[in-house]
Amino acid sequence: MATRIISTGSYVPEQIITNDDLAKVVDTSDEWITQRTGIKQRHISLGENTSELAVNTAKQLLERAGVAADKVELIIVASVTADYGTPSIACMVQKEIGASNAVAFDVVAACSGFMFALSIADKYISAGIYNNAIVIGAETLSKILDWSQRSTCVLFGDGAGGAYVEKSETDGIIEEELGSKGELYEILTEGYTRCSNVFNDIEEGTDSLWYVNMDGREVFKFATKSVVKSVERVIAKSCVSPQEIKYVIPHQANIRIVEIISNKLKIPYEKFYVNIEKYGNTSSASIPIALNELNEKGLIERGDKILLTGFGGGMTWGTMLISW
Ligand code: ACO
Q1: pLDDT tens for each residue of 82-108
Q2: Ligand 1 pocket residue status of 60, Cβ below 6 Å
Q3: Which amino acids are annotated catalytic?
Q4: Residue minimizing CA distance to atom 44 of ligand 1
């Protein structure tokens, strides 16, 4: 038994911020951002919160799959920018789409979040507990960016993407790997909330920890190492050769990271689907937005072998080989 993607969807806020727009507010340039990252523009929310991006994606998934909301059994949303501490985004999606019979919860694995969420859905479905699931990565990273920090604010964008999956007797997820390296957690953090009580005053000097803080070079090193090893292990465990893989959908963090991964794996760069120039890094949404774009363009056919791979805060990584 396998878990198969039946439909894909995505939703991004309308407002586009170009590199030139950013150069008006921080000391940067289109040339620097394009050369160092590959990003040309990003979508930034004008008030729509993460749950709204996720709800729009979920509605599209069900419409495209032709499935009624009350038939959905599981909803998992991956995000590091939830509207609330509680409720989960997944419960808000459940309410808004009317999926009254579903179990709903969120997962946190930063930019690897969609891979973790899809893996969890696959386990429930493979174990025969649920027959289907909505899996979404959704972020409004704009609310956790320090817009005066040029080293981080130019990198990210807002958006959501997802997949509706069902139990399948034939095609689906072939092989996968998730990984975590918690000892490196300090190289990429965001959203720190302070601890206070009646006896101790609030911690001093932690305000900036609310925003994305990153040691860019260490993240770069981690990404190029962990993704390559993970992809090699997943391919080795499967009966699929690298030549048989039609597309690789990497997490869209930096075009230079993708080029290095392609070189190290000796998988031609043309097989990597990259759309970072339009969206920037949308964290957990980046892989499903790219997958949906590939699907909408009609570039994937039944039986094609597609490899999804991402890395993110935690630090975490996840790779999945799919037969479409
Ligand atoms: N515009 C202009 N100059 C800038 C900008 C900017 N937006 N940001 C930094 N600089 C300057 C720095 O101040 C520095 O100047 P200095 O030499 O005078 O000190 C110079 O550019 C070089 O800075 P570095 O940080 O060394 O630049 P680097 O080539 O490493 O690129 C980057 C930075 C793009 C962040 C890179 O390290 C990177 O991509 N790291 C990977 C991490 C990543 O992709 N994170 C995304 C999110 S994490 C995730 O998705 C899990």
Answers
A1: 999 999 999 999 999 999 999 999 999
A2: no
A3: 111, 251, 281
A4: 253
Written as one letter, the residue type at 272 is F
Ligand 1 within 6 A of CB of 154: yes
* C-beta 132 within 6 A of ligand 1: no
Domain end: 153, 169, 185, which one?
169
Report the nearest-CA residue for atom 50 of ligand 1.
253
Helix, strand and coil content of the chain, in percent to the nearest 5, comes to 40, 25, 35
Q: Residue 199: CB partners within 8 Å, gap ≥ 6?
A: none
Q: Whose CA is nearest to atom 1 of ligand 1?
A: 28
Q: 179-188, pLDDT tens digit by residue?
A: 999 999 999 9
Judge whether residue 276 has pLDDT over 90.
yes
Q: Which atom of ligand 1 is nearest to the CA of 22?
A: 7
129: three-class secondary structure by DSSP: coil
Residues 179 and 249 in one domain: yes
Task: Give yes or no for residue 151 CB within 6 A of ligand 1.
Answer: yes
Number of domains in the chain: 2
List the alpha helices (DSSP H) in the chain: 19-23, 30-37, 50-65, 89-97, 113-126, 150-153, 216-237, 255-265, 276-279, 286-296
d(CA 76, CA 21): 35
Answer yes or no: do 303 and 278 share one domain. yes
